[in-house]
Design brief:
The chain has 302 residues and is α/β, with parallel strands linked by helices. It has one domain: Metallo-dependent phosphatases (Purple Acid Phosphatase, chain A, domain 2), CATH 3.60.21. Helix content is 28%, strand content 20%. It has 11 helices and 14 strands. The strands form 3 sheets. It has a 7-stranded mixed sheet with strand order 1-7-8-11-12-14-13, covered by helices on one side. Strands 2-3-4-6 form a 4-stranded parallel sheet, covered by helices on one side. It is globular and about 50 Å long. The relative contact order is 0.17. The model has no long low-confidence stretch (mean pLDDT 94). The structure holds fe (ii) ion (FE2). The site of fe (ii) ion has 8 residues, from loops. The site of fe (ii) ion (FE2) has 8 residues, from loops.
Length: 302
Amino acid sequence: MIMSRTPIEIPWKTGKVAVLADLHHDSYNKIRREPFESHGLDRSLQWAELDALIIAGDLANAPFTNWSAAFAYLRRFIDPSRTIIFPGNHDYYAACLCADDELEKLAKAAGVQFAQQREVRHGDDRYFCTTLWTDFAMLNDPEAAMNVARQHMNDYSQIFKRLEAGPLSPSELLGRPQQVAITPEDILALHNTQRSWLEDRLAEPHWVPNGRSFVVTHHGPHPDAAGQIDDLTPAFHSDLTPLFDQHWIDGWYFGHSHRRLAAQVGSTPVRNVSVGFPLEKHGPEELPLEELCLVPLPGASG
Ligand SMILES: [Fe+2]
């Protein structure tokens, strides 16, 4: 389990930060396509000017097989030292839900910064990063939502948990023996841990009076940014209205649902920054990703 650690410091040069999620690099690789080129982001983002790129999960399935190729791809656009990642649900596929320490080693081996339950500091801005997962409670019936998730989401056959404590063996890292599939109850417990971490961090005073606080998660924080709601929506988004009410948050970026939507929750702009799968359809209500993904400069309206 990752404990509270020192913040990641990103040097301030231009002040520009982009947040993107759901590159699913392995899915593009399989059909000889590339995620940024497929969505025009190779041209529409001014890569050389970015101080940092934060990847909010779902870089690739089966990370111990596929993350290194994805990092090599990202290196074509931005220096690894300015690339920050934390896992989405797919980054635990064919792996263990407890693999954060090993995922951090993979990222570090590529020179990339790993930010699961970690603060990133950039100028007078702080970003609190975590997968978050979900409480299954958006439609007020968590038990029903868990059952829908169990039946319809690959997470509950592709992600494993350990039955015994201790270091992971090489075969266990790949989701092999001594493990069983996770359950929605495991995810709810992890959500509660990560949500508590986030609330504790948001409650800490900023180090400057007008400093900004952002949240970056893989899962969604509010129904207003979820799009059309159905029985499966609580597996993708929580309703964290009380958290928005209690803390000043200058912006919240997330992915997971692959719907590029924006909402205003109280004083907080909430933005989905999913690249999404190759050939995935995006509806007319969705917004330009190259605009959603850029954090407004301090003093700019966002
Ligand atoms: Fe995704």
